[in-house]
Amino acid sequence: MSTLQHVCSAPLARAVRSRARALSISSAVSTSSPAKQASSVDSRVLLGLSEQELQKLATDFGQQSYRGKQLHHLLYKTKAKDIQDFSHLPQAFRDGLQEAGWRVGRSPVHRVVASADGTVKILLMLEDGRLIETVGIPVEHQKGSFRLTACVSSQVGCPLRCAFCATGKGGYSRNLQPHEIVEQVLAIEEIFKHRVTNVVFMGMGEPMLNLKSVLDAHRCLNKDIEIGQRMMTISTVGVPNTIRKLASHKLQSTLAISLHAPNQELREKIVPSAKAYPLDALMADCQDYFHETGRRVSYEYTLLAGVNDGVEHAAELAAMLHGFCRGSHVNLIPFNPIEGSEFRRPYKKAVLAFAAALESRKVTVSVRQTRGLDASAACGQLRNEFQKKPLQLSTPARELGPLLT
Ligand code: SAH
């Protein structure tokens, strides 16, 4: 029996039901006016605001500041989705907020796909008709503890086009706003009927290209939704000048670097954006990050059969890491096949040999269990299934309409 079925069979049933009655796209698109596209973002969204900001908002509307506290509770504890559901607040205040154009900022769920191992992938339809993926990954430990990890997207698509990644192949549209990141966590909590314990910024997009929103969302997830900073991981392929910026915030979250190769030449083939950020410079920034924050950086390494998965690559990787820092941790991810890709998943034997070669050189290593293979699990795959046309900056929602069905 899958973990999800075991832990929360009702949510799974609901997930499957909502799959069957997924929203009609044409109606969803027809209600989103072109005026509300990404470029003309409406900032009157409650989700993502701090308690102080909500108190200020309440007093701006002639209410006492404790109404702001109530708003905070309704958004982050009750998790109400609509201003008219704020039944603790005076009707006049609710109407006033709505008339002024305020909204909660929760998007409709477009599709939910549950895999046999309990992983649930959710597609949210944003106000401008664009789709983003978010994934809920439940892990039940033998001792009875239960962890629910949210893998969140930071952009609609991704401009970086790493060779093996489905998101990059689908194109890039825009950055997500803070509330569009936060709501992914709330959508997962709603489906699982359980609080999210961990957040990884490993969904669609490159978090460091949208650092301001990622930091705002991180603040909200930590302070308002009360997910510990140490329970969150920000994953990046590396964007020049951003790791130092992140370090200056001295977060207690983990920085994960998507490395995928032990040298610059091979890395450029797998990660085209690496040309603009040589491995030496990236590793030096990681070293500084550790000194500044005291938090060890972890390294993600997607294993591609016959490309970067030889024991000689492991030996080179260990030497490279030891050259920069003591005690690095490497997370190995066997390639998750995507449509039309020339890459292959390595055999288990090769994965274990790679891990052993790192361990014997005193590099700690974990092998990420592939979750939800049957639910289009690789980053961006599900979105690509439903939003076939590659995203472009200028694609308006009304043009996407017929492509989404
Ligand atoms: N842009 C960020 C976050 C998104 S990708 C980054 O690169 O870190 C998050 C992780 O998923 C990366 O480590 C990436 O290598 C991995 N990933 C993406 N597609 C994959 C696939 N098809 N198989 C295995 N890992 C994949």
From TrEMBL:
Task: Give the organism, scientific name.
Answer: Spirodela intermedia
GO molecular function per UniProt? 4 iron, 4 sulfur cluster binding; metal ion binding; RNA methyltransferase activity
Q: Report the GO terms under cellular component.
A: cytoplasm
User: Is this entry keyworded Cytoplasm?
Assistant: yes
Name of the protein this chain belongs to: Radical SAM core domain-containing protein
Matches recorded under SUPFAM superfamilies: Radical SAM enzymes
InterPro entries of this UniProt entry? Aldolase_TIM (IPR013785), Elp3/MiaA/NifB-like_rSAM (IPR006638), Methyltransferase_A (IPR040072), RlmN_N (IPR048641), RNA_MTrfase_RlmN (IPR027492), rRNA_lsu_MTrfase_RlmN/Cfr (IPR004383), rSAM (IPR007197), rSAM_sf (IPR058240)
Location of the Radical SAM core domain:
144-374
> Keyword rRNA processing: yes or no?
yes
Pfam families the record matches: Radical_SAM, RlmN_N
Alphabetically sorted, this entry's keywords are: 4Fe-4S, Cytoplasm, Disulfide bond, Iron, Iron-sulfur, Metal-binding, Methyltransferase, rRNA processing, S-adenosyl-L-methionine, Transferase, tRNA processing
UniProt-annotated location(s)? Cytoplasm
Which cofactor(s) does the record list? [4Fe-4S] cluster
Q: Which HAMAP family match?
A: RNA_methyltr_RlmN (MF_01849)
Q: Which SMART domains match?
A: Elp3
Q: Name one GO biological process term.
A: rRNA base methylation
